[in-house]
Amino acid sequence: MLKQRTIKNSVTETGIGLHKGRKVRMTLKPAPVDTGIVFRRIDLNPPVDIKADARDVGDTMLCTCITNSEGVSIHTVEHLASALSGLGIDNIMVEVDSYELPILDGSASPFIFLLQSAGIEEQDAPKRMIKINRPIRVEDDDKWAELRPHDGFRVDFQIDFPHPFIKQTRQHVVMDFSVNSYIDEVSRARTFGFMRDLELMNDMNLALGGSMDNAVALDDYRVLNPEGLRYKDEFLKHKILDAIGDLYLGGHSLIGELAAYKTGHGLNNKLLNALLDQPDAWEYVTFEDDKNLPIHYIESTNSFGITFA
Ligand SMILES: [Zn+2]
């Protein structure tokens, strides 16, 4: 049986929040079957829980946030969500003493490391996945994103940045996660942005934690980070990382293909909601038999040898 997963032990990390630039302390804790992903704001008295739910997701200029029915928000959830999707973790409690998660290195890699350090535990209940049965498409100007039936998980993803440096990198890829490894090929891709935008935002008291420690910074022609890129197509890979995180805020892994052109947080969320609004386009599936699983996750040990998706 393909089982639900949580983590074995609690694990704590501190880091800078992107928005306020202040230190944030985050503790990831195991959670029971069918909990889903729950954020707990322990800076509030009493603490407030915010459950990841596609309908409560919004996007800001900088990140994806979730706001509960009481109006309490948690920001910058997408990179953790992407890591949780990559490891197939269904149930987790994320305690945080701020309104934002730490940005860490701007990728999903530190979250993968933390979750693997905590250990992954299989739980005694079947994992429920969302199987796409017919295409669902959303558009915004020339941008679009579509979910299509596919027996596995695959992305056909294109970006189109008219920047001289980004244009020289790969801007279109098809990744089939029965072959491609999320951890190896996607999780390390960092956020990117223009240095001049960061300076403008800083002037408006925004993105105070943004720096070359947690983003790839560009000027009009080149990458400013002395260490360069982690992948030759890091820009494209980060957009895939974001989309995988955004789509996981529905709480379930998808069996299907994501095809997208110039999509971002807002459109990813619109796609997820369009899907959930049309129950005839998908169904929940579980797998009692381990044979012929359309998706494989790494073992609960700290093995990097097996591909996700
Ligand atoms: Zn991102």
Order of helices and strands: EEEEEEEEHEHEEEEEHEHEHEHEHE
Mean pLDDT: 93
CATH class identity of the largest domain: Alpha Beta
Hey, roughly how much beta strand do the residues contain? 25-35%
CATH architecture heading of the largest domain: 2-Layer Sandwich
Counting helices, strands and paired strands, the structural category is: alpha+beta
Q: Provide the domain count.
A: 2
- Overall form: globular
Number of helices: 7
Find the count of extended strands (DSSP E, 2+ residues): 19
Roughly how many Å apart are the termini? 17 Å
Low-confidence segments: 301-309
Query: Residue share in helices?
Result: 10-25%
Largest sheet: 7 strands, mixed
Keywords:
alpha+beta, 5-stranded mixed β-sheet, binds zinc ion, 7 helices, globular, disordered C terminus, Ribosomal Protein S5, domain 2, 7-stranded mixed β-sheet, 309 residues, 2 domains, 21% helix, 19 strands, lpxc deacetylase, domain 1
